[in-house]
Design a protein that fits this description.
Largest sheet of chain A: 8 strands, antiparallel
Number of strands of chain B: 0
Helix content of chain B: over 70%
Strand content of chain A: 15-25%
Largest sheet of chain B: none
Oligomer: heterodimer
Radius of gyration of chain B: 18 Å
Largest interface: A-B, 46 and 60 residues
Shape of chain B: globular
Radius of gyration of chain A: 30 Å
Number of helices of chain A: 10
Strand content of chain B: under 5%
Number of helices of chain B: 10
Distance between the termini of chain B: 45 Å
Shape of chain A: elongated
Structural class of chain B: mainly alpha
Chain lengths: 295, 189
Protein backbone atom coordinates (compact mmCIF):
# COMPACT_ATOMS: atom_id res chain seq x y z
CA UNK A 1 0.00 0.00 0.00
CA UNK A 2 1.48 3.37 -1.03
CA UNK A 3 1.54 6.44 1.21
CA UNK A 4 -1.20 7.97 -0.96
CA UNK A 5 -3.46 4.92 -0.38
CA UNK A 6 -3.00 5.43 3.36
CA UNK A 7 -3.99 9.10 3.10
CA UNK A 8 -6.98 8.34 0.90
CA UNK A 9 -8.28 6.03 3.62
CA UNK A 10 -8.20 9.07 5.89
CA UNK A 11 -10.27 11.28 3.56
CA UNK A 12 -13.60 9.98 4.93
CA UNK A 13 -12.38 10.41 8.49
CA UNK A 14 -11.30 13.97 7.73
CA UNK A 15 -14.66 14.86 6.14
CA UNK A 16 -16.53 13.19 9.00
CA UNK A 17 -14.57 15.22 11.59
CA UNK A 18 -13.09 12.03 12.99
CA UNK A 19 -9.49 13.16 12.41
CA UNK A 20 -7.91 15.56 14.84
CA UNK A 21 -4.63 16.82 16.31
CA UNK A 22 -1.40 15.68 14.71
CA UNK A 23 -3.18 13.19 12.44
CA UNK A 24 -5.24 16.01 10.90
CA UNK A 25 -2.17 18.25 10.49
CA UNK A 26 -0.20 15.44 8.84
CA UNK A 27 -3.14 14.70 6.53
CA UNK A 28 -3.51 18.35 5.48
CA UNK A 29 0.23 18.67 4.88
CA UNK A 30 0.08 15.70 2.50
CA UNK A 31 -2.98 17.06 0.71
CA UNK A 32 -1.21 20.38 0.19
CA UNK A 33 1.69 18.65 -1.50
CA UNK A 34 -0.11 15.89 -3.48
CA UNK A 35 -2.34 16.85 -6.43
CA UNK A 36 -3.87 13.37 -6.84
CA UNK A 37 -4.92 13.10 -3.21
CA UNK A 38 -6.24 16.68 -3.27
CA UNK A 39 -8.43 15.78 -6.27
CA UNK A 40 -9.65 12.68 -4.46
CA UNK A 41 -10.54 14.80 -1.43
CA UNK A 42 -12.41 17.27 -3.67
CA UNK A 43 -14.42 14.46 -5.27
CA UNK A 44 -15.40 13.13 -1.87
CA UNK A 45 -16.29 16.66 -0.72
CA UNK A 46 -18.51 17.05 -3.78
CA UNK A 47 -20.37 13.83 -3.02
CA UNK A 48 -20.77 14.90 0.57
CA UNK A 49 -22.14 18.27 -0.56
CA UNK A 50 -24.74 16.67 -2.83
CA UNK A 51 -25.85 14.41 0.03
CA UNK A 52 -26.06 17.31 2.45
CA UNK A 53 -28.07 19.38 -0.05
CA UNK A 54 -30.66 16.62 -0.04
CA UNK A 55 -31.27 17.10 3.67
CA UNK A 56 -33.79 16.36 5.14
CA UNK A 57 -34.19 13.24 3.08
CA UNK A 58 -37.56 12.38 4.59
CA UNK A 59 -40.09 14.16 6.73
CA UNK A 60 -42.38 12.32 9.14
CA UNK A 61 -46.04 12.60 8.03
CA UNK A 62 -48.25 14.85 10.15
CA UNK A 63 -50.31 11.84 11.25
CA UNK A 64 -47.24 10.19 12.81
CA UNK A 65 -46.11 13.48 14.36
CA UNK A 66 -49.57 13.96 15.90
CA UNK A 67 -49.67 10.39 17.22
CA UNK A 68 -46.22 10.71 18.80
CA UNK A 69 -47.07 14.10 20.29
CA UNK A 70 -50.21 12.51 21.68
CA UNK A 71 -48.18 9.72 23.28
CA UNK A 72 -45.75 12.20 24.81
CA UNK A 73 -48.31 14.58 26.17
CA UNK A 74 -51.23 12.28 27.01
CA UNK A 75 -49.96 11.71 30.53
CA UNK A 76 -50.42 8.00 30.03
CA UNK A 77 -46.74 7.33 29.56
CA UNK A 78 -46.05 4.39 31.77
CA UNK A 79 -43.89 4.86 34.80
CA UNK A 80 -43.99 8.63 34.67
CA UNK A 81 -47.57 9.67 34.97
CA UNK A 82 -50.01 6.81 35.01
CA UNK A 83 -53.77 7.38 35.34
CA UNK A 84 -53.61 5.35 38.56
CA UNK A 85 -51.13 7.80 40.09
CA UNK A 86 -53.27 10.70 38.96
CA UNK A 87 -56.29 9.15 40.68
CA UNK A 88 -54.32 8.54 43.87
CA UNK A 89 -53.13 12.14 43.85
CA UNK A 90 -56.68 13.39 43.39
CA UNK A 91 -57.90 11.18 46.24
CA UNK A 92 -55.14 12.63 48.47
CA UNK A 93 -56.12 16.17 47.49
CA UNK A 94 -59.77 15.42 48.27
CA UNK A 95 -58.82 13.90 51.61
CA UNK A 96 -56.83 16.95 52.71
CA UNK A 97 -58.71 19.98 54.11
CA UNK A 98 -59.24 22.70 51.52
CA UNK A 99 -57.28 25.89 52.14
CA UNK A 100 -55.27 24.15 54.82
CA UNK A 101 -51.85 24.84 53.36
CA UNK A 102 -51.11 28.17 54.97
CA UNK A 103 -53.42 30.37 52.87
CA UNK A 104 -56.54 32.14 54.14
CA UNK A 105 -59.58 30.02 53.32
CA UNK A 106 -61.60 32.88 51.74
CA UNK A 107 -59.06 33.30 48.93
CA UNK A 108 -59.75 29.68 47.97
CA UNK A 109 -63.54 29.84 48.10
CA UNK A 110 -64.47 29.91 44.40
CA UNK A 111 -61.28 28.14 43.43
CA UNK A 112 -61.97 25.17 45.69
CA UNK A 113 -65.49 24.86 44.29
CA UNK A 114 -64.10 24.85 40.75
CA UNK A 115 -61.44 22.35 41.78
CA UNK A 116 -64.04 19.99 43.23
CA UNK A 117 -66.04 20.17 39.97
CA UNK A 118 -62.90 19.49 37.94
CA UNK A 119 -61.85 16.63 40.19
CA UNK A 120 -65.30 15.06 40.09
CA UNK A 121 -65.25 15.35 36.30
CA UNK A 122 -61.94 13.50 36.27
CA UNK A 123 -63.06 10.84 38.71
CA UNK A 124 -66.44 10.19 37.19
CA UNK A 125 -65.58 9.57 33.58
CA UNK A 126 -68.69 10.39 31.54
CA UNK A 127 -70.48 7.36 30.07
CA UNK A 128 -69.97 8.85 26.61
CA UNK A 129 -66.21 8.68 27.05
CA UNK A 130 -66.44 5.12 28.39
CA UNK A 131 -68.46 4.12 25.34
CA UNK A 132 -66.00 5.78 22.94
CA UNK A 133 -63.14 3.87 24.60
CA UNK A 134 -65.06 0.59 24.39
CA UNK A 135 -65.72 1.21 20.67
CA UNK A 136 -62.07 2.13 20.11
CA UNK A 137 -61.02 -1.21 21.62
CA UNK A 138 -63.38 -3.14 19.36
CA UNK A 139 -62.06 -1.24 16.33
CA UNK A 140 -58.46 -1.80 17.38
CA UNK A 141 -59.01 -5.53 17.98
CA UNK A 142 -60.68 -5.93 14.57
CA UNK A 143 -57.97 -3.92 12.74
CA UNK A 144 -55.25 -5.92 14.49
CA UNK A 145 -56.90 -9.22 13.56
CA UNK A 146 -57.17 -8.10 9.94
CA UNK A 147 -53.43 -7.39 9.91
CA UNK A 148 -52.78 -10.88 11.30
CA UNK A 149 -54.93 -12.47 8.59
CA UNK A 150 -53.04 -10.50 5.94
CA UNK A 151 -49.72 -11.68 7.37
CA UNK A 152 -48.62 -8.14 8.24
CA UNK A 153 -48.34 -8.58 11.98
CA UNK A 154 -45.72 -11.08 13.09
CA UNK A 155 -45.69 -12.27 16.69
CA UNK A 156 -42.76 -11.10 18.81
CA UNK A 157 -42.72 -14.42 20.62
CA UNK A 158 -43.77 -17.71 19.06
CA UNK A 159 -44.67 -20.39 21.58
CA UNK A 160 -47.42 -22.84 22.44
CA UNK A 161 -46.76 -22.45 26.16
CA UNK A 162 -49.11 -20.19 28.17
CA UNK A 163 -46.47 -20.03 30.92
CA UNK A 164 -43.86 -18.63 28.50
CA UNK A 165 -46.35 -16.02 27.28
CA UNK A 166 -47.18 -14.99 30.86
CA UNK A 167 -43.48 -14.59 31.71
CA UNK A 168 -42.80 -12.67 28.50
CA UNK A 169 -45.53 -10.12 29.22
CA UNK A 170 -44.58 -9.76 32.90
CA UNK A 171 -42.33 -6.69 32.53
CA UNK A 172 -43.83 -5.36 29.33
CA UNK A 173 -47.46 -4.50 29.96
CA UNK A 174 -48.63 -2.01 32.63
CA UNK A 175 -50.97 -4.60 34.21
CA UNK A 176 -50.78 -8.11 35.58
CA UNK A 177 -51.68 -10.50 32.82
CA UNK A 178 -51.65 -14.25 33.25
CA UNK A 179 -52.64 -16.62 30.49
CA UNK A 180 -54.49 -19.57 32.09
CA UNK A 181 -52.24 -22.61 32.25
CA UNK A 182 -53.46 -25.65 30.29
CA UNK A 183 -56.64 -23.74 29.57
CA UNK A 184 -58.52 -24.38 32.79
CA UNK A 185 -57.99 -28.10 33.19
CA UNK A 186 -58.99 -29.44 29.85
CA UNK A 187 -61.21 -32.55 30.04
CA UNK A 188 -60.29 -33.69 26.56
CA UNK A 189 -57.94 -32.75 23.74
CA UNK A 190 -57.75 -29.04 23.09
CA UNK A 191 -59.13 -28.12 19.70
CA UNK A 192 -57.04 -24.96 19.36
CA UNK A 193 -53.36 -24.13 19.58
CA UNK A 194 -51.54 -21.16 21.08
CA UNK A 195 -49.34 -19.56 18.40
CA UNK A 196 -47.62 -16.59 20.01
CA UNK A 197 -47.85 -13.07 21.36
CA UNK A 198 -46.76 -9.51 20.82
CA UNK A 199 -47.23 -6.01 22.20
CA UNK A 200 -49.73 -3.66 20.60
CA UNK A 201 -50.13 0.03 21.32
CA UNK A 202 -53.55 1.16 22.48
CA UNK A 203 -54.42 4.66 23.70
CA UNK A 204 -50.81 5.57 24.45
CA UNK A 205 -50.13 2.42 26.42
CA UNK A 206 -49.45 -1.27 25.81
CA UNK A 207 -51.90 -4.06 25.18
CA UNK A 208 -51.15 -7.80 25.15
CA UNK A 209 -52.00 -9.63 21.95
CA UNK A 210 -52.10 -13.43 21.85
CA UNK A 211 -53.01 -15.51 18.81
CA UNK A 212 -54.41 -19.00 18.48
CA UNK A 213 -55.09 -21.36 15.60
CA UNK A 214 -57.99 -23.73 15.30
CA UNK A 215 -58.05 -25.88 12.15
CA UNK A 216 -57.82 -23.23 9.45
CA UNK A 217 -59.10 -20.42 11.69
CA UNK A 218 -57.03 -17.73 13.36
CA UNK A 219 -58.22 -16.33 16.67
CA UNK A 220 -56.71 -13.31 18.41
CA UNK A 221 -57.10 -12.13 21.98
CA UNK A 222 -56.30 -8.51 22.81
CA UNK A 223 -56.03 -7.65 26.51
CA UNK A 224 -55.90 -4.11 27.92
CA UNK A 225 -56.16 -2.59 31.35
CA UNK A 226 -59.73 -1.75 32.36
CA UNK A 227 -58.46 1.80 32.85
CA UNK A 228 -57.93 2.02 29.09
CA UNK A 229 -61.31 0.59 28.08
CA UNK A 230 -64.20 -1.36 29.56
CA UNK A 231 -66.36 -3.81 27.65
CA UNK A 232 -69.53 -2.12 26.44
CA UNK A 233 -72.03 -2.12 23.60
CA UNK A 234 -72.94 -4.88 21.15
CA UNK A 235 -75.30 -7.75 21.99
CA UNK A 236 -74.95 -8.56 25.67
CA UNK A 237 -74.82 -12.15 26.90
CA UNK A 238 -74.74 -12.94 30.63
CA UNK A 239 -72.72 -15.95 31.65
CA UNK A 240 -71.95 -16.60 35.30
CA UNK A 241 -70.66 -13.35 36.76
CA UNK A 242 -69.46 -12.14 33.36
CA UNK A 243 -71.18 -10.11 30.68
CA UNK A 244 -69.99 -10.74 27.13
CA UNK A 245 -70.46 -8.10 24.44
CA UNK A 246 -70.87 -9.49 20.95
CA UNK A 247 -69.88 -7.12 18.10
CA UNK A 248 -69.78 -7.66 14.34
CA UNK A 249 -67.15 -5.59 12.51
CA UNK A 250 -66.77 -6.05 8.74
CA UNK A 251 -67.22 -9.82 8.79
CA UNK A 252 -65.27 -10.29 12.03
CA UNK A 253 -66.78 -11.33 15.34
CA UNK A 254 -65.40 -9.35 18.27
CA UNK A 255 -66.41 -10.52 21.75
CA UNK A 256 -65.40 -8.26 24.64
CA UNK A 257 -65.67 -8.69 28.39
CA UNK A 258 -64.15 -7.13 31.51
CA UNK A 259 -62.93 -9.12 34.47
CA UNK A 260 -60.57 -8.46 37.41
CA UNK A 261 -59.35 -5.08 36.11
CA UNK A 262 -58.70 -6.26 32.57
CA UNK A 263 -60.72 -6.01 29.38
CA UNK A 264 -60.52 -8.75 26.76
CA UNK A 265 -61.36 -8.62 23.04
CA UNK A 266 -61.53 -11.97 21.28
CA UNK A 267 -61.64 -11.77 17.48
CA UNK A 268 -62.41 -14.50 14.98
CA UNK A 269 -64.39 -15.21 11.86
CA UNK A 270 -66.48 -17.81 13.66
CA UNK A 271 -70.21 -17.62 13.07
CA UNK A 272 -72.93 -18.04 15.69
CA UNK A 273 -73.70 -16.30 18.96
CA UNK A 274 -71.12 -15.20 21.53
CA UNK A 275 -72.09 -18.18 23.68
CA UNK A 276 -71.57 -20.60 20.77
CA UNK A 277 -68.26 -18.95 19.95
CA UNK A 278 -67.06 -19.43 23.53
CA UNK A 279 -68.10 -23.08 23.42
CA UNK A 280 -65.93 -23.71 20.37
CA UNK A 281 -62.85 -23.46 22.59
CA UNK A 282 -64.38 -24.34 25.96
CA UNK A 283 -66.30 -27.49 24.90
CA UNK A 284 -63.65 -29.81 26.37
CA UNK A 285 -63.01 -27.75 29.47
CA UNK A 286 -64.20 -28.05 33.02
CA UNK A 287 -66.12 -24.78 32.69
CA UNK A 288 -68.03 -25.72 29.51
CA UNK A 289 -71.41 -25.79 31.29
CA UNK A 290 -71.03 -22.07 31.92
CA UNK A 291 -71.34 -21.49 28.17
CA UNK A 292 -74.00 -24.04 27.32
CA UNK A 293 -77.33 -22.82 26.05
CA UNK A 294 -79.79 -21.69 28.66
CA UNK A 295 -83.51 -21.03 28.38
CA UNK B 1 -42.32 32.77 31.49
CA UNK B 2 -41.85 29.07 32.19
CA UNK B 3 -41.83 26.77 29.18
CA UNK B 4 -44.90 24.74 28.23
CA UNK B 5 -44.57 21.48 30.25
CA UNK B 6 -45.82 19.44 27.28
CA UNK B 7 -43.18 20.96 25.03
CA UNK B 8 -40.58 20.33 27.71
CA UNK B 9 -41.61 16.68 28.00
CA UNK B 10 -41.69 16.29 24.21
CA UNK B 11 -38.21 17.75 23.98
CA UNK B 12 -36.91 15.48 26.73
CA UNK B 13 -38.31 12.51 24.83
CA UNK B 14 -36.59 13.61 21.61
CA UNK B 15 -39.55 14.71 19.45
CA UNK B 16 -37.09 16.83 17.44
CA UNK B 17 -35.57 13.60 16.09
CA UNK B 18 -38.83 12.37 14.61
CA UNK B 19 -37.87 13.17 10.98
CA UNK B 20 -34.51 11.47 11.36
CA UNK B 21 -36.09 8.43 13.00
CA UNK B 22 -38.72 8.25 10.30
CA UNK B 23 -36.04 8.45 7.56
CA UNK B 24 -34.04 5.71 9.26
CA UNK B 25 -37.20 3.62 9.67
CA UNK B 26 -37.95 4.05 5.95
CA UNK B 27 -34.52 2.89 4.83
CA UNK B 28 -34.77 -0.12 7.14
CA UNK B 29 -38.34 -1.14 6.31
CA UNK B 30 -38.70 0.36 2.79
CA UNK B 31 -42.38 0.57 3.55
CA UNK B 32 -44.30 3.60 4.75
CA UNK B 33 -46.79 1.97 7.10
CA UNK B 34 -44.08 -0.19 8.69
CA UNK B 35 -41.93 2.93 9.13
CA UNK B 36 -44.80 4.81 10.78
CA UNK B 37 -45.49 1.94 13.18
CA UNK B 38 -41.79 1.62 13.94
CA UNK B 39 -41.43 5.30 14.86
CA UNK B 40 -44.53 5.22 17.06
CA UNK B 41 -43.35 2.05 18.78
CA UNK B 42 -39.91 3.62 19.33
CA UNK B 43 -41.41 6.57 21.20
CA UNK B 44 -43.71 4.32 23.21
CA UNK B 45 -40.81 2.19 24.38
CA UNK B 46 -38.60 5.24 24.94
CA UNK B 47 -41.24 6.81 27.17
CA UNK B 48 -41.47 3.65 29.24
CA UNK B 49 -37.71 3.54 29.71
CA UNK B 50 -37.13 7.27 30.07
CA UNK B 51 -36.87 7.02 33.84
CA UNK B 52 -33.67 5.02 33.46
CA UNK B 53 -32.06 7.66 31.24
CA UNK B 54 -29.37 9.80 32.85
CA UNK B 55 -29.36 13.59 32.37
CA UNK B 56 -26.20 13.43 30.28
CA UNK B 57 -27.40 10.53 28.12
CA UNK B 58 -27.31 10.79 24.34
CA UNK B 59 -31.06 10.82 23.66
CA UNK B 60 -30.66 10.82 19.89
CA UNK B 61 -28.38 7.78 19.77
CA UNK B 62 -30.57 6.03 22.33
CA UNK B 63 -33.73 6.54 20.22
CA UNK B 64 -32.03 5.25 17.06
CA UNK B 65 -30.80 2.20 19.00
CA UNK B 66 -34.32 1.46 20.27
CA UNK B 67 -35.73 1.78 16.76
CA UNK B 68 -33.13 -0.57 15.29
CA UNK B 69 -33.61 -3.16 18.03
CA UNK B 70 -37.38 -3.21 17.51
CA UNK B 71 -36.83 -3.66 13.77
CA UNK B 72 -34.29 -6.45 14.28
CA UNK B 73 -36.76 -8.36 16.42
CA UNK B 74 -39.46 -7.77 13.84
CA UNK B 75 -37.23 -9.08 11.02
CA UNK B 76 -36.37 -12.15 13.06
CA UNK B 77 -40.04 -13.08 13.23
CA UNK B 78 -40.98 -12.12 9.71
CA UNK B 79 -38.52 -14.58 8.20
CA UNK B 80 -40.22 -15.59 4.96
CA UNK B 81 -42.33 -12.48 4.49
CA UNK B 82 -41.44 -10.85 1.18
CA UNK B 83 -39.86 -7.41 1.32
CA UNK B 84 -42.25 -4.89 -0.13
CA UNK B 85 -40.83 -1.64 -1.38
CA UNK B 86 -43.59 0.92 -1.46
CA UNK B 87 -42.01 3.29 -3.99
CA UNK B 88 -45.06 5.52 -4.24
CA UNK B 89 -45.14 5.87 -0.49
CA UNK B 90 -41.46 6.69 -0.57
CA UNK B 91 -42.22 9.60 -2.87
CA UNK B 92 -45.17 10.79 -0.76
CA UNK B 93 -43.17 10.58 2.44
CA UNK B 94 -40.36 12.51 0.91
CA UNK B 95 -42.16 15.66 -0.12
CA UNK B 96 -39.98 18.08 1.71
CA UNK B 97 -39.87 21.81 1.21
CA UNK B 98 -36.37 23.20 1.38
CA UNK B 99 -36.74 26.22 3.62
CA UNK B 100 -33.43 27.64 2.39
CA UNK B 101 -34.42 27.59 -1.28
CA UNK B 102 -34.54 31.13 -2.66
CA UNK B 103 -36.49 30.76 -5.90
CA UNK B 104 -38.98 28.30 -7.43
CA UNK B 105 -36.07 27.11 -9.57
CA UNK B 106 -34.07 26.36 -6.42
CA UNK B 107 -37.04 24.46 -5.05
CA UNK B 108 -37.33 22.46 -8.28
CA UNK B 109 -33.60 21.69 -8.47
CA UNK B 110 -33.50 20.83 -4.78
CA UNK B 111 -36.43 18.45 -5.10
CA UNK B 112 -34.95 16.83 -8.22
CA UNK B 113 -31.65 16.32 -6.47
CA UNK B 114 -33.34 14.93 -3.38
CA UNK B 115 -35.36 12.49 -5.49
CA UNK B 116 -32.23 11.17 -7.21
CA UNK B 117 -30.41 10.84 -3.89
CA UNK B 118 -33.37 8.96 -2.38
CA UNK B 119 -33.53 6.64 -5.37
CA UNK B 120 -29.79 5.98 -5.12
CA UNK B 121 -29.93 5.33 -1.37
CA UNK B 122 -32.83 2.89 -1.78
CA UNK B 123 -30.77 0.92 -4.31
CA UNK B 124 -27.97 0.35 -1.81
CA UNK B 125 -27.79 -2.91 0.15
CA UNK B 126 -29.41 -2.78 3.61
CA UNK B 127 -26.12 -2.44 5.53
CA UNK B 128 -24.96 0.42 3.34
CA UNK B 129 -28.33 2.18 3.48
CA UNK B 130 -28.43 2.46 7.22
CA UNK B 131 -24.80 3.45 7.73
CA UNK B 132 -25.00 6.20 5.10
CA UNK B 133 -28.22 7.62 6.56
CA UNK B 134 -26.83 7.63 10.10
CA UNK B 135 -23.65 9.39 9.02
CA UNK B 136 -24.64 11.72 6.15
CA UNK B 137 -28.06 12.84 7.32
CA UNK B 138 -28.05 12.26 11.02
CA UNK B 139 -24.40 13.26 11.39
CA UNK B 140 -23.79 10.73 14.13
CA UNK B 141 -20.19 10.01 15.09
CA UNK B 142 -18.54 6.71 14.21
CA UNK B 143 -18.76 5.73 17.88
CA UNK B 144 -22.49 6.50 18.03
CA UNK B 145 -23.11 4.55 14.82
CA UNK B 146 -21.08 1.62 16.16
CA UNK B 147 -23.25 1.60 19.30
CA UNK B 148 -26.49 1.67 17.29
CA UNK B 149 -25.35 -1.05 14.88
CA UNK B 150 -23.73 -3.00 17.71
CA UNK B 151 -20.47 -3.47 15.79
CA UNK B 152 -16.84 -2.27 16.05
CA UNK B 153 -15.89 1.21 14.78
CA UNK B 154 -13.68 -0.40 12.11
CA UNK B 155 -16.77 -2.09 10.66
CA UNK B 156 -18.56 1.27 10.55
CA UNK B 157 -15.63 2.78 8.65
CA UNK B 158 -15.39 -0.02 6.10
CA UNK B 159 -19.18 -0.12 5.55
CA UNK B 160 -19.22 3.65 5.12
CA UNK B 161 -16.40 3.57 2.58
CA UNK B 162 -18.17 0.85 0.55
CA UNK B 163 -21.52 2.67 0.82
CA UNK B 164 -20.05 5.96 -0.42
CA UNK B 165 -18.29 4.27 -3.30
CA UNK B 166 -21.54 2.57 -4.41
CA UNK B 167 -23.53 5.74 -3.90
CA UNK B 168 -21.09 7.69 -6.06
CA UNK B 169 -21.52 5.15 -8.86
CA UNK B 170 -25.32 5.27 -8.61
CA UNK B 171 -25.49 9.06 -8.44
CA UNK B 172 -23.19 9.45 -11.44
CA UNK B 173 -25.79 7.50 -13.44
CA UNK B 174 -28.84 9.22 -11.95
CA UNK B 175 -27.78 12.87 -11.73
CA UNK B 176 -27.43 15.02 -14.87
CA UNK B 177 -24.03 14.70 -16.55
CA UNK B 178 -21.37 16.83 -14.89
CA UNK B 179 -23.50 17.47 -11.80
CA UNK B 180 -20.98 15.97 -9.41
CA UNK B 181 -18.20 17.91 -11.14
CA UNK B 182 -20.07 21.18 -10.60
CA UNK B 183 -20.65 20.27 -6.97
CA UNK B 184 -16.94 19.53 -6.76
CA UNK B 185 -16.12 23.00 -8.09
CA UNK B 186 -18.53 24.58 -5.59
CA UNK B 187 -17.03 22.57 -2.76
CA UNK B 188 -13.56 23.89 -3.46
CA UNK B 189 -14.60 27.53 -3.90
Amino acid sequence: MSACDDYRCLVSLFLDHELSGEDAEDFLAHIASCGDCRRFLEEEQALSQVLHHARPLYKAPETVRARVSGILSSGENAGLFTPERLRQRIVRILASPLGGVGHPAHRWGWLSAAAVVAILALLLTPPMVERARADALVEKAAATHRKILEGHLPMEIQTSSPEVVTTWFADKVPFHFQLPESQQAAMGPQNYRLVGSRLISFRGSYAALTTYEMQDQKISLLVVSENSARAEGGDEVESGHLTFHDHAVDGLKVITWSNHGLTYALVSTLSGSARQSCLVCHQNMADHLQFSQHP
Amino acid sequence: MSPDPHRKQESAAGIEHIDGLYGYALVLTRNRSDAEDLVQETYLRAIRAMGRLRDDSNVKGWLFTILRNIWRNEVRYRRNAPETFDMEADERAARVIDENAKTPHDVYVGELERRHVRAAVQQLPAEAREVIVLREWEELSYQEIATILDCPIGTVMSRLARARSKLRGLLTKLLPKGYLRRAEAEATE
